[in-house]
Amino acid sequence: MESINHTLFLWLNAPEHPNAMVLTLATFFAEHLIWVVPLLIGIGWLRGSEALSKAMLVSTASGLLGLLINQAIGLAWLYPRPFMISLGHTLIPHVADSSFPSDHLTLWWAVAFSLSLQRGPRIVGQALATLGIPIAWARIYLGVHFPFDMIGAATVATFSAWLTLRESRWYLEPSYRLATKIHHRLFGKLIALGWVRE
């Protein structure tokens, strides 16, 4: 399996002298697109209905659970990144921590899959899930992940989305009440002006 992982990585990894436009696009997908997740959750919370706000809380829980699972996997099994074993070309800096699964893609897909499973934001979730594919490619192309890291991320994200939605009855209402109190305290003036929801 490891030889397949390495072979697929070398096939997808950037050449020694990559095309500048492809490199720019890959860097955008690999490093900058992730900011869509907190932005989307923030807008959904500030401007959406109660149902949408609760959907954002569930998707946030999914993302956090996914990252927690990844930390446990990384502590139990340190799988080196390609540059740690001098394989391929690495075009962006990254800390030398465990490669499997990809935290970056786990967070993205855990949120996307969670939204996809919920009635209101399903289309947004499906769009985000599709955007995860070029993110996965970019992380491999730039040399910081193996292809199997992305399969691991998809597995963890799927489990996280399923579990946090299934068990939402245990945490959703209290976390919604707490988040609403914080929301009113932070955005009281903007609520009065009608710029954000009450």
Query: Can you give the mean pLDDT?
Result: 93
Strand content bin:
under 5%
Q: In CATH, what is the homologous superfamily? A: Phosphatidic acid phosphatase type 2/haloperoxidase
Distance between the termini: 53 Å
* Molecular shape: elongated
Name the helix and strand elements from N-terminus to C-terminus, one letter apiece.
Answer: HHHHHHHH
Per the CATH scheme, the topology name is Vanadium-containing Chloroperoxidase, domain 1
- Provide the structure class: mainly alpha
Rg over CA atoms, rounded to whole Å, is: 19 Å
> How many individual helices?
8
Quickly count the domains.
1
Major sheet attributes: none
Task: Please name the CATH architecture.
Answer: Up-down Bundle
The CATH C-level name is: Mainly Alpha
Number of strands: 0
Which segments are poorly predicted (pLDDT under 50) over 5 or more consecutive residues?
Answer: none
Fraction of residues in H or I helices: over 70%
Describe the structure.
- The chain is mainly alpha-helical and about 200 residues long.
- The protein has one domain: Phosphatidic acid phosphatase type 2/haloperoxidase (Vanadium-containing Chloroperoxidase, domain 1, Up-down Bundle), CATH 1.20.144.
- Helix content is about 75%, strand content about 0%.
- The chain is built from eight helices and no strands.
- Helix 3 packs antiparallel against helix 4 (about 50-75), helix 4 (about 50-75) crosses helix 7 (about 145-165) and helix 4 (about 50-75) crosses helix 8.
- The relative contact order is 0.17.
- The model has no long low-confidence stretch (mean pLDDT about 95).
